[in-house]
């Protein structure tokens, strides 16, 4: 392979991207060297097994991915703003909508939510870490390197261009030769391993490590949503694993699963993809529901209305989410009977979703609302998401879907649910738990400004797209027609509004770091759940003594009774796991193995794979048992953080 | 836990960590069930799509597959004996039975490789049709699992030799035994759904 084929050449925008990457990398290397921070980076971050730090790394990566996916989106909107514009050619446009969709769902939405789960769930259940902290680090690095593999495709080898759904035969070796599609397959495969492991890890954590006394139906609602999400992950992700593997085997080893030759079956891919893909959309929406529920309860200053109904509707949604996948290809022609069955099951999902909407309204009803930024996101979510849901039900009517399918109506639908649901929740959750993570709040004024810019921009962008769809504009079109000009132009303006909102959000992180007052108590918002019972900054062992839980809203309950979770008389040495560089190295090797496979350098790929297996073997012999934090150390830490002096022992 | 209870709780369940590992592994097995179900479904959908390669009924023969089934089922049994010995705290028989288990597993693999070579020789390869692609990937994934299981169990036997039975080592051995039985169950499905049906249809 020639070097000019290895690197992507001939595109001015991509050259600019390369320059940007080189400059940023140099800047990072320079800063780390200049401030002598390499050791710190390795010791504190790359080797960490602490769920709080891993969560922060997830969120930082997700923000970077949101930026990348956002730049893709703006480029698409520029191209669509005027008919006959030649900002992006058709090939480049195809690549960009493919990477946009994949990055946003797999490398932005999921990691952002998993990051929040990482930080919050152990704290909410009164645990000291995940059930398997080492595996948690593995999961993070598998996501990180998967994302890296996918993202380098735009400078090395060329991006995939068959859509985030990668339908065959288009995505097969005959019609998409070259490494592009392999980047998609292996990037997702690599990060998928981590997602599955996180699902198992969090499930065991929630089932086994809850504070004494906390029954399942006393768990905070975000923890519940996480548990249900884990269930979906565990049953949906293996399907993706298989689907990706089969296409990889097709492309690289010449099998005939999805091909047009050898009696292969291209539509089998669509089925497998959506058997994972529909549950996947619920993987990214249920945690969002959990976040909004926490925030709404806190700032309405009320116990969540209909907690049990909320939990049961999530469980119902999780079950139903596996029974609706065909609604993504009603037009495939499976016949009236099959389409009717899936049409009905699709509409059934709207029922438990509606129940949740009414529960949020019920919580807000007659309450004294505090209009903080996280609360604003939550309030904006409710009506926006309803629009997305109602249009979803319209799409769910099989006969009507022949009209809507693959038009901008569909595009508007899923952006209404994904942005108003998942993205609003990520912002809301980050602002809500930010003081717990970093010891100060995000500035409310700037936060609100970014909120309004983003939300108004969002509606301006996507509301017109419903009408573009009804006017017949198909999705994945790189060149628009004059009759669609006005609505497209409006939509592009809105997109820049969202961009500005996001930029302000990121700016606010820096501004608040400089100016926000530091938190003095751990309880920044008069919270109701256990994460607010820890001091800020949270000691690495989270809870010096494990609280005993008697009710839902455990911390609210404790505060009423004048208790804290800290009881000095009950201090015992705390067992903690050691940090380890293995997860980083192991996943780094797997990255190289996958990278080699992308270019079909099979022997090299196998060599790296063997290295990974050797690492796993080494780990198997490693009986490192962690260490204990001594009582004296705990006492010193807690007294300092809680502002207790020696006379006032305990409380 | 009272000393009375402690006596009756198997070693691998005595620490919370052991319990969590075992629960986590059960959940992992649930994910594996989904993985194999997807492969079985793919196989079922692509059944009969042989294009112009040989039909399964022309190639599948009863003898070798029966021997393979016999080997793997017996290995599940010997694995059970090994765990029984572990519960009694007998290290030596544990190791002997584990080694027998692995030898049986190796035998199974040997026959499977022989089968695959035979089919390939007859013109049924991974590339020849959708049906054969799904056959090789389904049976091959199982075979790959057996291979990994053998490698993993070998490492555990070395650890038992070095450390004896502790809550940690016994929990590891217990988990691999779950894995081994699971692979046996999957094989029974492959035997019936793939070979028996493939022979008659
Ligand atoms: C009230 C519940 C919902 C219903 C009834 C519904 C229904 C549908 C239907 C029928 C389609 C396929 C339309 C077509 O291709 O012609 C669709 C597509 C889609 N929906 Fe929904 N949906 C609902 C909620 C959600 C949620 C909560 C999310 C994610 C957070 C979501 C994300 C998506 C995505 C990503 C697609 C299309 C992906 C693609 O083709 O690229 N939906 N929805
Ligand atoms: Cu769907």
TrEMBL record, chain A:
Keyword Transferase: no
UniProt-listed GO biological process terms: electron transport coupled proton transport; oxidative phosphorylation; respiratory electron transport chain
Cofactor note: Heme A3. Binds a copper B center.
Transmembrane segments: 12-35, 56-76, 96-121, 133-156, 183-209, 221-249, 281-299, 311-330, 336-355, 376-400, 412-434, 446-467, 487-511, 589-618
Cofactor field: ferriheme a; Cu cation
Keyword Nuclease: no
Pathway: Energy metabolism; oxidative phosphorylation
EC code(s) of this entry: 1.10.3.-
Family, as annotated: Belongs to the heme-copper respiratory oxidase family.
Name the record gives this protein: Quinol oxidase subunit 1
Gene expressing this chain: qoxB
Automatic annotation (TrEMBL), chain B:
One Pfam family, short name: COX3
Catalysed reactions, as listed in the record: 2 a quinol + O2 = 2 a quinone + 2 H2O
Principal subcellular localization: membrane
Gene Ontology CC annotation, any one: plasma membrane
Domain of life: Bacteria
InterPro entries registered for this protein in UniProt: Cyt_c/ubiquinol_Oxase_su3, Cyt_c_oxidase-like_su3, Cyt_c_oxidase_su3-like_sf, Cyt_c_oxidase_su3_a-hlx, QoxC, Ubiquinol_oxase_su3_dom
Stretches assigned to the Heme-copper oxidase subunit III family profile domain: 23-199
Keywords: Cell membrane, Membrane, Oxidoreductase, Transmembrane, Transmembrane helix
Function: Catalyzes quinol oxidation with the concomitant reduction of oxygen to water.
Protein family per UniProt: Belongs to the cytochrome c oxidase subunit 3 family.
UniProt-recorded name of the protein: Quinol oxidase subunit 3
Species: Filobacillus milosensis
